Amino acid sequence: MTHESAVNDQGPPWLMLPYPTRKATWRIVVHCSATPAGKDFGAKDIDAWHRQRGFKSIGYHYVIRLDGDVERGRPQEAIGAHAEGYNSTSVAVCLIGGVDADDINKAENTFTPQQMVSLKLLLDKLMEQYPQAVLYGHRDLPGVHKACPSFNVRKWWKDSHAIA
């Protein structure tokens, strides 16, 4: 079962690197990995992809795998590398998936129920830590022209907190 406490705190190598620290946190940004439905990847994979693109390390702070396990990316207080122009004031969460299994150019909400439970728990924690922060899907940031994370984050957030 996945819970807030399921975040893997084992020290992956990228946690040992020196990073500049965010001075303020105004946004929490949800991303997708834009990987085909049903194919599981983790923070280690994304770290390798981001290094291939010339990044210092993984750009996200958290990665949520298909089974709902939450893995650490960059240290939470570090400046990320995930949304140009917003990195210095945001925390980034990446869900694995987000594109059609047969057509990687087709954005699709492919996330598992376990991922969505973990996302809600993690965002609850982050929103409590940063009460001034506003929640965004990557696509909702001004100037961003992408489908990421392949669903309407704010609508989902509102619906997930609706009183029945």
Q: Which sequence of SSEs, written as H and E, runs from N to C?
A: EEHEEEEHEH
What is the gyration radius calculated from CA atoms?
15 Å
Main β-sheet, spatial strand arrangement: 4-3-5-1-7
Q: What is the correct CATH architecture?
A: 3-Layer(aba) Sandwich
Percent of residues in β-strands: 15-25%
User: Biggest sheet: strands, sense, closure?
Assistant: 5 strands, mixed
Give the topology.
Blueprint: E1 27-32, E2 35-36, H1 43-52, E3 62-64, E4 70-72, E5 90-95, E6 98-99, H2 113-129, E7 134-137, H3 153-160
Parallel strand pairs: 1-5, 1-7, 2-6, 3-5
Antiparallel strand pairs: 3-4
Write up what this structure looks like.
With 164 residues, this protein is of the alpha/beta class. It has a single domain, classed as Lysozyme-like, CATH 3.40.80. The chain has three helices and seven strands. The strands form two sheets. The chain has a five-stranded mixed β-sheet, with helices on one face. Strands 2-6 form a two-stranded parallel ribbon. The longest helix is centred in the last third of the chain and has 17 residues. The chain is globular, with a radius of gyration of 15 Å. The N terminus is likely disordered.
